[in-house]
Amino acid sequence: MAFTSRLLSRSKQMTQLCGGGSCSQVILKKERAIPVRFFAKEAATQALAGDEMLKSIFMDVKTKFSAAIAALKQGEKITIAPEDPAAVAHYAKVMKTVREKAGLYSESERIDHSIEEETEDILDVRTYLETVKELATQDHLFVDDGAEAMMMEALEKVEKEIKKPLMRNDKKGMGLLMAEFDKINK
């Protein structure tokens, strides 16, 4: 108890002596140093559930950014001249190459890529259209304006006409389906 009161009175004296400023030299004299012992280890921070997800997202973005920078360093020179159509075309070509190398696709390219990946093994048109509809629903792009129903009706009409399920590699049947789609669009 006596020690704490003496320490408090000394701290008041130091505050008055220093005028409220920094007095680290006065406080840390050797004869008045107080040894401090820590008995408990510092508590380690617990990783939260979203930390790993954020870390993986960050690493993914970092990897793509590094790949884009590396592609730009290796690539051709870019001339920015908005009035020159050849320079604009060259810039677009270089940037498309950089995005492809880095895996940074535009929204439409990403959608096309996911459709191609998901539907490459599908042989019949009906399953293809249903899969595309599911993908659009997953990406929140599906709008129920009746177009899908009309497309399915056109598909049924073509399948009745050819008397078998329409396959994607059937050029004649696909031509008939495209003609039906053109009628719907008019």
From TrEMBL:
Record-level GO BP terms: pollen development
Superkingdom in the source lineage: Eukaryota
InterPro entries given in the database record: MGP1 (IPR031432)
Protein name: Uncharacterized protein
Taxonomic source organism: Turnera subulata
Lineage: Eukaryota, Viridiplantae, Streptophyta, Embryophyta, Tracheophyta
